[in-house]
């Protein structure tokens, strides 16, 4: 089983978005989120938290160790039911990857389709864990209304908008906002995780690089995927510590001669510790750097 099946094993959506036009349509961040929600199928995207008891604010997970423990226990139970065992490194790595994809995916979707970046603060993001089956997130809520945008954005004059100089500056904002959130997670998670700081930051790098790729690949065309790869190269053009690498996306030729994009992971998901599971494609244990 590959950790990269999450969120929710989505197929390509096959729908073009506003990204090709180079800027968002008029409106605030809520309008942007409503648009991008229709352009992807990996998770439910919301601008609020329903009162159904299933949603967790990211601050709750970071500030209350019991919330993280409950999530890990659900994953342990699921792994034992599926595989008869729940190795602690596998549990820790899955939760790490699933959590970090929340800020990464929210930021990547808005950058790719709208050329906007939300604040990504833990108190402005929430997630919903699947009610049945594998307990990975199947919903993301962006609760803040502030955003960064380009000078060409028709919403740049709104009071909640901050205009930056160009796309490179917008990419810098996304990277900085994401790293600030990931830093909170690394600090909180190290208290109870068998994973060290380097592994956690490798996981953070994987989440951001993968999310940037997914944001366009869901368009279902080579052009959409190529635009996503360009976004990843812009945001992760080189290593920006504490992130552990530049984007590792690369073109590869499959055994049938078909060329396509792939990436080398920076972190190990430890799925190979499960019975009858091998290393994932792109695993750092089997794919040397370079």
Can you lay out the helices and strands and say which pair or pack?
Elements (H helix, E strand, L loop, with lengths): L28 H9 L6 E3 L8 E3 H6 L1 H19 L4 H27 L1 E3 L6 E5 L7 E6 L4 E3 L11 E3 L3 H23 L7 H21 L4 H14 L13 E5 L5 E5 L27
Parallel strand pairs: 1-5, 6-7
Antiparallel strand pairs: 2-4, 3-6, 4-5, 8-9
Helix pairs in contact: 3-4, 4-5, 4-6, 5-6, 6-7
Describe this entry's structure for a reader.
With about 290 residues, this protein is α/β, with parallel strands linked by helices. It has one domain. Helix content is about 40%, strand content about 10%. The chain has 7 helices and 9 strands, in the order H-E-E-H-H-H-E-E-E-E-E-H-H-H-E-E. The chain has helices at about 30-35, 60-65, 65-85, 90-115, 165-190, 195-215, 220-235, and strands spanning about 45, 55, 115-120, 125-130, 135-140, 145-150, 160-165, 250-255, 260-265. A 4-stranded mixed beta sheet has the order 1-5-4-2. A 3-stranded mixed beta sheet has the order 3-6-7. A hairpin with a 7-residue loop joins strand 4 (about 125-130) and strand 5. Helix 6 (about 195-215) packs antiparallel against helix 7. The longest helix has 27 residues, at about 90-115. The relative contact order is 0.16. Residues about 10-20 have low confidence and may be disordered.
